Amino acid sequence: MMNGRADLSAILPDGREFDFWEEDCTYTHILYVDCQDPAASDENDGSKDAPFQTISRAAALASPGTKILIRAGIYRECVRPAAGGTDPTHMISYEAYPGEEVCIRASEEVTDFSESTGWKLRPLPEFSDRGLTVSGDHSQNTRITSNLFLDGIEQREAIFIECTKEGTNLIDNNVIWNVEGRFDPSEVPSEPGSSGWYKMKEHDVVNGYGVYCEGTDRLIVAHNLIGKCRHSGYYAKPVSFRMGGLERGGTSRKARILNNIFYDCAEAAIVFPTQDNESEGNLFLCMSGGYLRVMYPAPELCLDLDTWREFCGYDLTGNSAWFGFRLEDGKLSLEERKDSPVHAPGPAKPVQVLRDPSKIRKRKQVSCVPADITGRRHTGKVLPGPFSSWEDGMTVIRTERNALS
Predict the structure, then answer these.
(1) Using CA of residue 81, residue 86, residue 90, residue 91, what is the dihedral sign?
(2) Hey, CA dihedral for 179, 180, 181, 182, is it positive or negative?
(3) 292-321 pLDDT, tens per residue?
(4) pTM of the shown model
């Protein structure tokens, strides 16, 4: 409960409420930090009239029951707390001073440059190219909700959910925007002329996924906005032989992809491994041909919305349209697209595309997603995506707590 009201973002896939380790805490000591006060010093006592210069100094001295109040400013330091809380009523709290904005940057500002000599350029060591990772059967009944994943440069996927074979997991009310992928463009196979038409399945060089599901069964992906992914918004594959003892392999079946918005993903919106999954109520914006795919059995199916419905029975209440969103300064706005779908070579056929957002019809609620990204409870039928209404300046970044279990 928050302020006497149910926190709808804390409802887990099985219907229980996440048990936050959170109670009202009475602080016995307050330390103050102010990097802009000329009298601030790490030699001070941290009182209101004699604040510390750095957060790190306060973190080194704080004990359970301490609140650290930080005045406005940019703090260029890497904070390593020396201690943490001992129980819900004896915590250490780091808070911005009421009404003020605090920014912590673990970097130094350099203004004086000189040319470097006598060094060699070497490849960077391998680093994780994944975003948020959920792995293993211990992660069942997990909910990933109300997050912004923005500008995944050199990132393979925003959310990686791996081999959670039992139970149900939920990814909902997130905005995933611009996942650029990490691959070598020179390794993308050349397919001159019609040579690529007859392959049995797509190559696996290009990546850049919104949600990458590897051997996870019964996953629900609902009411997200997934845009500008280099490969696809949702991609799943089995890991049939990842097993040990009496364990089974992961199938990536019985996924439910519901009421999402997929926008301008370069290769596909949805890639299922088999037809043993569900897709309903999704909105597909500014997608190129063959953006709905089923990999097995070969040859891979690369479909549009009409054949996705006809051959697979998916998205009978879904839509495809040709308008977009713009994300700036934590705000989303609808955007008119002046361009049109690109035709294949040859005589162009007239294509009727829906360009008016007001024509997008509402669809059935998803029972395990009772509210939108702002916490507004759903009533009646709902729009696809994380917002219950589409207005200029839809807030993506919230200052209140986002539940992530």
Answers:
(1) positive
(2) negative
(3) 999 999 899 999 999 999 999 999 999 999
(4) 0.76
